[in-house]
Amino acid sequence: MREAGEGRPVALWALVSVLVLACVVGGVQVAHAHDSRERAAERQQRYADALAAARTEATAFVNVRHDTAEEDLGRIAAGATGPLKDRYVEDADRFVAALRRDKTVTTGSVVWAGVVRVDANGATVLVATTGTRADRTTKGEEVSRDLRLRLELVPVDGDWLTSDIRPVG
């Protein structure tokens, strides 16, 4: 026959072992959840930043006036990078001359924008704009102009800059 208390140390060690294991598993799960939340927050911030940059660049793109052409093209170039920026910087004089010759005035606003793809290396954003255009071909009369644009953006020194902008459809 066993004396009272002989089985307790084994049972106590088993209970302590189970509790320690539960704490370790719980700690690992908390760490994974924390990392997952951080990654989700980073993805969400990247999404929001790329979307805001695309909206800003599209707004600059659809608001160009012959009498403020240098500043307007400067705004487009400021939100651009690579060959797109080079085109707006290097061909600025030619663009300004054409805008002034035709007395071009374009106005517009973004009515919808959506991120197609975003990751740490870049983003693709579709933007819908509505606005007007008046120039020599319209005899100075404003005509409705709705654009659908596809913007490719890349992160550069903490900012999202447009590397390409193209009409869609």
Keywords, separated by commas or semicolons:
169 residues, alpha+beta, Nuclear Transport Factor 2, Chain: A, 4 helices, rod-shaped, Mce-associated membrane protein, membrane
Distance N terminus to C terminus? 90 Å
- Kindly identify the CATH topology: Nuclear Transport Factor 2, Chain: A
Q: Characterize the overall form.
A: rod-shaped
Unreliably modeled segments: none
The percent of residues in helical segments reads 40-55%
State the CATH architecture: Roll
Task: Characterize the structure shown.
It is found in: Membrane. Keywords: Membrane. This is Mce-associated membrane protein. Its main location: membrane. The termini are far apart. α1 packs antiparallel against α2 and α2 packs antiparallel against α3 (82-90). A 5-stranded antiparallel beta sheet has the order 1-2-3-4-5. The protein has 4 helices and 5 strands, in the order αβαααββββ. The mean pLDDT is 91. The chain has a single domain, classed as Nuclear Transport Factor 2, Chain: A, CATH 3.10.450. Helices cover 50% and strands 31% of the residues. The chain is α+β, with helices and mostly antiparallel strands. A hairpin with an 8-residue loop joins β3 (122-134) and β4 (143-156). The chain has helices at residues 8-61, 69-78, 82-90, 92-102; strands at residues 64-65, 105-119, 122-134, 143-156, 159-167.
Task: Furnish the topology, listing elements before pairings.
Elements: H1 8-61, E1 64-65, H2 69-78, H3 82-90, H4 92-102, E2 105-119, E3 122-134, E4 143-156, E5 159-167
Antiparallel strand pairs: 1-2, 2-3, 3-4, 4-5
